[in-house]
Task: structure prediction
Amino acid sequence: MLEEALKNAQLREKVGRIRLLLLDVDGVLTDGKLYFDNQGNEFKAFNTLDGHGIKMLRKSGVEVGIITGRTSKLVEKRAADLGVTLLVQGREDKFTALEELRQTFPCALDEIAFLGDDWPDLSAMTRVGLSLAVKNAHWQVIEHAHWVTSKNGGAGAVREICDLLMLGQNTYRDALSHYVSY
Result:
């Protein structure tokens, strides 16, 4: 499926330029549900496939960052566990947050991919080189995406994007070779 998508010359060209993948959290790295206990403690479930994809993508030379409208120690811990240092929390204006991250990781807008699921993500998605939506994103977000995952947020969609980027940049086989001998 990913190889089929990359037969589209325009998508392949966009994928080839990406140096930074930015991710929303709720609905992208998670299933979008907010879990609280009776004391108000928040819980989030992250997909291990997504986490490993992020690690492999970073090793391949594409940096990963997170921009989220909510603030959570859980997200801070997950980012640290994955080696993601580009993190902005508590910001609904995703494009302004993106611009702040560009001060730390300078790159052109067309070298950035953004994976989102809802309206707050559109301010960044509509300005970057590769706008991406999870399968269960709001229909307006899907309408503005260059490509939509076959997986829902929190269910391997981020891994799908990591694989897409590595396949399109010819780094996938090298990443896989650490696990499989050819």
About this structure: The chain has a mean pLDDT of 96. Residues 2-95+107-120+146-176 form a domain with the Rossmann fold fold (CATH 3.40.50.1000). The beta strands are 20-23, 35-36, 42-43, 63-67, 86-88, 112-116, 130-133, 147-148. The CA atoms of residues 22 and 65 lie 5 Å apart.
